[in-house]
Structures are given as C-alpha cells and as structure tokens.
Amino acid sequence: xxxxVLVLLAALLVGACGFLPTPLDPTPAAEQAxxxxxxxxxxxxxxTDTVVPATETFTPTVELPPLNPTITPxxxxxxxxxxxxATGETxxxxxxxxxxxxxxxxxxxxxxxxxxxxxxxxxxxxxxKVTFANRSKAQAYISLQQQDENGAILEYPVKTRFTVLVxxxxxxxxxxxxxxxxxxxxxxxxxxxxxxxxxxxxxxxxYN
Length: 208
Known about the structure:
This protein is an alpha+beta fold. It has 2 helices and 9 strands.
C-alpha cells in the first residue's frame, strides 16, 4: 500500500513539473529595448531676431540757380548826359569828356562840323549874346572854351551870320578857316555883347 502511494506521489510530481512555464530566451531587439536608456527631451531652440545694421543712404544735394538773378545795370558816364539850358532846350553832346582850362595856344578843335555844347551849364548862370560872321567865303568852324571853373565848351560851324546865347565868363577860342588855325581870347560880361568876324587870315573880336 505504501508503494502505491509513493508511485502516485511521484507521478503527481512529474506531472506538476510538466505544467511549469518554460522561460523564453529574450530576442536581441527586446534586449536592446530593455537596455536602452529612456530618451531625453531635447529643448527646441527658439528663433532669435536678427539685427540688420542700418545703412546710411547718401542723397546728393543739387544746388539750383537762383530764380531771380541779380542783374547789374550798365554804368553811364555822367558827362554824356545832355545839359539843359535856361530856355528848356536840350543839346545832345558828341564828346564825353569835360575839358579843363587851356592856355590860348593849347585849345584844340573837334573835327565834327556841328553845333556842340558840353560841360556844366547850370540854369542860374547868366547868359549874353555872341554873334558870329564868316567873311572868308571858306569853310569855317570855331570852338569857345570857357576858362572859369567847371567851364563849358561851345563849338559852331560858321557859314554866314548868326547869334547865340553863351554863359558869361572868360573864353579862349580856336577858329579854323579854310583849314587854317587861329586862336585868341575874349571876355563876355552881362553888359556888353561880343561880335566875332572870321576872315581868311585873321579873327576880329568886337564888343557892342
């Protein structure tokens, strides 16, 4: 009876061992998965603002010409302005220089055969008559040059006989008769008139 019990126990033990689970060999992938450390979280880099250096833009400056240019008026010689006489007549001069006092032998002739009046002839200066007469039957021309300060020069072609008003004062005359030059002097005052007669070889001055 004991033997039967032992045999049954042995059979039970053997059967129980057959039902125990057999351990499985781990696969390489599983072993790697178990041995690999857990992944760590990598921080994502945030975008940063890129500073662009400012570049200086050069703008050329263009200088424009002025809208209203300055115009310099031409200058005129005051001696070219025609003088006015007391009677309101305007005489246009052809010479532009105011002469200075000349000695009797230093007077010169203006070659233009025309009535010339230039110099200072203020209206307040008293005038008197001077008469010219040509007795030479040739071309004649006479220049009267006042010897006072700021004196005037009066020049006339003498064809026949005529009378003009002349400022009183001391005068030097230069006469050309037929190309011959003759000079002299006279005084004209407020009380007497002067008559100048031209001949071929002389000049006669009379007072009236």
